[in-house]
Amino acid sequence: YLAESGGGLVHPGESLKITCAAGAPLHFWDIAWFRQAQGKDREGILCINAAGTSTNYLNSTKGRFTTSRDNAENKVYLQMNDLKPEDTAVYFCAVGPPCGPEPLSPPRFGQWGQGTQVTVSS
Fold it and tell me: What is the mean pLDDT of the chain?
């Protein structure tokens, strides 16, 4: 299983760190982060490979969102800084194909967490 935690309500400009915890060893897997705002399609944000190298695919989050992993703890983290109201969404982690140069495609990911709500509002 995958389980996200750490979402919540924050003010614009604040930071939040989301955790993706796995019920099995993660160290062989690349992990991707997605988000889905109400009424919008799910969009891919970041992918981190097994070695810890990450790629950010979403221009609006570059320079603000980063991801890291702790393979010993079977956890992956999404650090979100300088949050904006347009970052409001349900955030998901997922296991799928290896991180690559192409944008993340949700149908290619077979295992998902339940998501955690992030709301950015003044």
Answer: 95
